[in-house]
Specification:
Strands 5, 6, 7, 8, 9, 10, 11, 12 and 13 form a nine-stranded mixed beta sheet that branches. A two-stranded antiparallel sheet has the order 1-2. A two-stranded antiparallel sheet has the order 3-4. It folds into four domains: 6-157, no CATH class; 189-298 and 523-572, no CATH class; 403-499, no CATH class; 582-648, no CATH class. By secondary structure, it is an alpha+beta fold. The chain is built from 21 helices and 21 strands.
Length: 650
C-alpha cells in the first residue's frame, strides 16, 4: 500500500543534498587542496549540519542543479529526470519503491559514514506533471528515444595541480644523442679569397641575374610612359663579365663611403675616385641598378621577387658545407623605412624598422640557412609561428644529433619535445608564462644563487636566481651547476645557461662585421636591399670558410675584401700590359730615312740618314733621348731605346 508519509521523508532528504551541493561549489574555488581533501571536508561539514526538516536547511535547489558533481557515466532519459529538480512529489510511493530509491547511506538507520558526493543522484520515476519547469531539464536530443543513453554534461574543471602533477623534482637522466655528421667542406678548400667567394656566387646565379635583368630592361623600355630619349631605349645586353664588374663596384662602395652613388664618378678634387670611371660609366651603373631583377614569374608569395636568390643561397650552403653540432637561431633586421607589408618593428635591434630575417648560424658566424618573415604566410603564423620557423630552418638538419640554442621567443615545452623526438637537443631561456610550463616554476621563490629544476619526458625546465630570476629549458643538460667568473668573482651557474651564452652569438657576429662596410642605399627597393644583404652574408660566409679550411694563413676582413675586389676590378694598366704580352714584340730599326745636305769645304753634299724618334720610356721620365729603333707591334710604332724596350715588354 502507498502511504502519504513518504513525501515527508523525501523532503527531508533533498535539503541535505542541496546543502552538500553548496559545499561542493565552495570547494571548487579552492586551489590549495586536492579533490580528496575537499571531499572529506564536505562530509564533515554535512555531518555537523542541523537536523532533518529544519527551516534553515530549506533551499531551492532548482537554482543550481548543474553544480552538483555527478558521475560521468551515461544514464537513461528517465535517470536524467533528476528528483533534485522536483519541489514536491504528488505521487504515492510504496515502501518497496522507497527503499529501492533511497541509497542505504542516506537512510535514517544507516551509520554516519563518509558520503561520496558522486552518489548524490537519486533516481525517481517521474511524470511530466511533476516537473516544475521544463527549462531546467538537461538538454536531450529530441530525436532520441526515452530508453536511449545520454551522457551527462562535464561539470568538472581541471585544477591547476593537474597540469603539473607529472613534473618531477628528482633529477632524471637526459637522453643521449650522438652527433652522426662530420663538420667540414664538402668541396675542395679554396686557394684564395676570390675562389671562396665564387663558391657561393657562382655562374648559375650570375646567369639567372643576367637573363632576368635583360628581360626586365626590354619590358621597361617597351612601356608606354617611357620617353623616346630615355637611356633605357639604348639598352645594351648585360653579360656575365660586366655583371661581375657591377658587383665589384657595388661592394667597393662599402669600402669607400660617400653620401650619393653619383659622387663616385665626380671629378671634384676633394672626392675624385678614378677607379669607378675606369671600369664603368655612371649612367651604365645606374641603368643596371634600375633594371636589376631576379625572376619574371608572379605568384602570391610575398618574397617572390627575391626567392631565386634566397633558394640558391640555402641550397648552395647545404651542398658545400656540413655544419658542426652546435647551432643557434636568431633574427636580424634589414633596414627599410618605406611602406611594405613585410616591414616590422623591433625596438631592441640596431635597425628598428625593416624586414625580419631568421638565420640558422654557427658559433663563429657562418650562416647555414635563413628565412625571410613574410608576415602572412600560412607556414609561419601564431605562437606556432616561432616553432614552425625553427622546424623550417632545421628541416635538412634533423635526426643527426645537432644541439640548437634558442632564445625565449622560440623556446617552449612542445617544441623541445618535438625536437627531442627528432634527435635534436635544444637549450635556452624560457618565458615563464609559456603554455605547458609547470606552475611551480612560475610561483616558487628562491634565494640568490639557488636553482630549482623539474623534469618530464626528458625535458628539463629550471629556474635560477642571480640578480633576477632566469627560467631556462634544456633537453641535454640537467641541473648541474658549474663555476664561472663574473666581475672578478666566481659564481655557480646552471650549465644550460653557461653554454647558451657561449653559443647564441652566431647571428650577431656577421651583422657586426658587415656593419663596418655598409653599401645599402635608402633609394633601393626592398628586393634589391635583400639582394644586397644576401651578397653581404655570402661574403661573410666566404670569409669564415676561407679562414677555417684554407691552408694559407688567416687574414682579416679588410684584406679579404680587397683581394676579392682586386679580382673583380683588376688594374686597367695591368690589363693593357697583359694584352700587350699576347703579341710578340720586336725592336727593329726605323726604316724611314731622310736626305740632308752638308757643306764640306765649299762643296755641298747630300746624304741620307735614318730618321730618329723620341724614346717613349725616356720621355715618360722627362729625359730627351733620340733613338733609331722602334716597336711596330705597339700602337703608333713608338721609338724605344734598348733599355726602355726591355722594361716595357718584360
Amino acid at each position: 500500500m502507498d502511504r502519504p508519509s513518504d513525501d515527508a521523508e523525501i523532503n527531508q532528504i533533498i535539503p541535505s543534498l542541496a546543502k552538500k551541493s553548496r559545499h561542493n561549489d565552495d570547494s571548487d574555488d579552492s586551489d590549495d587542496f586536492s579533490d580528496e581533501e575537499l571531499s572529506s571536508q564536505d562530509v564533515s561539514k554535512d555531518d555537523q549540519s542541523s537536523p532533518k526538516g529544519s527551516d534553515d536547511d530549506e533551499v531551492n535547489i532548482l537554482e543550481s542543479p548543474s553544480k552538483l558533481k555527478t558521475n560521468r557515466e551515461p544514464v537513461s532519459i528517465q535517470d536524467t529526470q533528476d528528483p533534485l529538480l522536483v519541489s514536491s512529489s504528488k505521487q504515492d510511493l510504496s515502501e518497496s519503491d522507497q527503499s529501492s530509491i533511497i541509497p542505504s547511506n542516506l537512510k535514517p538507520d544507516a551509520p554516519k559514514e563518509e558520503i561520496d558526493t558522486h552518489d548524490a543522484l537519486v533516481q525517481l520515476p517521474m511524470s511530466p506533471s511533476d516537473i516544475t519547469s521544463s527549462a531546467l531539464k538537461p538538454e536531450v536530443n529530441q530525436e532520441c528515444d526515452e530508453n536511449d543513453v545520454v551522457p551527462l554534461p562535464d561539470c568538472t574543471t581541471n585544477s591547476p595541480q593537474e597540469t603539473t602533477s607529472t613534473w618531477s623534482s628528482n633529477p632524471q637522466p637526459m637522453k643521449v644523442i650522438n652527433f652522426t655528421k662530420k663538420q667540414g667542406l664538402l668541396v675542395p678548400p679554396p686557394s684564395d679569397p676570390y675562389e671562396a667567394f665564387r663558391l657561393l656566387i657562382d655562374d648559375d646565379l650570375l646567369d639567372i641575374i643576367v637573363r632576368e635583368t635583360n628581360a626586365n630592361a626590354l619590358r621597361t623600355s617597351a612601356e608606354d610612359n617611357v620617353k623616346t630619349n630615355s637611356r633605357i631605349k639604348n639598352w645594351t645586353e648585360l653579360t656575365r663579365d660586366e655583371l661581375l664588374i657591377f658587383l665589384g663596384l657595388l661592394l667597393h662602395t662599402g669600402t669607400i663611403g660617400l653620401n650619393r652613388i653619383s659622387d663616385y664618378w665626380k671629378r671634384h678634387y676633394l672626392i675624385n675616385i678614378p677607379c669607378f670611371a675606369q671600369f664603368m660609366s655612371r649612367n651604365r651603373f645606374l641603368l643596371i641598378l634600375r633594371c636589376l631583377n631576379f625572376t619574371s614569374e608572379s605568384c602570391e608569395d610575398r618574397v617572390n621577387r627575391i626567392r631565386p636568390v634566397m633558394d640558391h643561397f640555402n641550397k648552395k650552403m647545404n651542398d658545400i658545407y656540413s655544419p658542426g653540432k652546435e647551432l643557434s637561431v636568431d633574427e636580424c633586421m634589414v633596414l627599410l623605412r618605406g611602406r611594405l607589408l613585410l616591414r616590422e618593428i623591433i625596438k631592441n635591434k640596431t635597425h628598428k624598422y625593416g624586414i625580419k630575417v631568421y638565420s640558422l648560424a654557427e658559433q663563429d658566424g657562418t650562416i647555414v640557412k635563413f628565412h625571410v618573415q613574410t608576415g602572412g604566410n600560412i607556414e609561419t603564423a601564431d605562437q606556432n609561428d616561432a616553432s614552425n620557423i625553427v622546424l623550417k630552418l632545421l628541416e635538412e638538419r634533423m635526426d643527426c644529433g645537432h644541439h640548437l640554442y634558442l632564445d625565449n621567443y622560440y623556446n617552449s615545452y612542445a617544441l623541445a619535445l618535438t625536437l627531442l623526438e627528432r634527435d635534436t637537443y635544444c637549450t635556452g631561456p624560457l618565458k615563464k608564462n609559456r603554455k605547458d610550463n609547470p606552475i611551480e616554476i612560475e610561483n616558487i621563490l628562491l634565494e640568490k644563487g639557488e636553482n630549482k629544476s623539474l623534469f618530464l619526458n626528458g625535458v628539463h625546465i629550471g629556474k635560477w636566481r642571480n640578480k633576477r630570476y632566469e627560467v631556462y629549458i634544456s633537453t641535454k643538460y640537467g641541473d648541474e651547476m658549474i663555476p664561472t667568473i663574473s666581475k672578478m668573482r666566481s659564481i655557480l651557474k646552471p650549465k644550460a645557461i653557461v653554454y647558451y651564452k657561449n653559443f647564441i652569438s652566431g647571428v650577431e657576429i656577421p651583422d657586426q662585421m658587415l656593419a663596418y662596410y655598409p653599401f645599402q642605399r635608402k633609394t633601393l627597393r626592398w628586393h634589391k636591399k635583400l639582394f644586397v644583404h644576401i651578397l653581404q652574408i655570402s661574403l661573410s660566409n666566404a670569409f669564415s670558410l676561407y679562414n677555417k679550411y684554407s691552408k694559407k694563413d688567416r687574414i682579416n676582413m679588410y684584406n679579404f675584401r680587397l683581394q676579392i675586389l682586386e679580382k673583380l676590378l683588376p688594374d686597367p694598366s695591368e690589363i693593357h700590359r697583359r694584352s700587350v704580352l699576347k703579341i710578340k714584340h720586336e725592336l727593329t730599326k726605323i726604316e724611314k730615312v731622310r736626305t740632308r745636305q752638308k757643306k764640306v769645304g765649299g762643296v755641298i753634299k747630300e746624304y741620307t740618314e735614318v730618321a730618329r724618334k723620341q724614346c717613349k720610356g725616356c720621355g715618360a721620365q722627362k729625359i730627351r733621348m733620340q733613338t733609331i729603333y722602334e716597336c711596330k707591334q705597339c700602337e703608333g710604332s713608338p721609338g724605344f731605346c734598348t733599355k726602355c724596350f726591355c722594361l716595357a715588354h718584360s
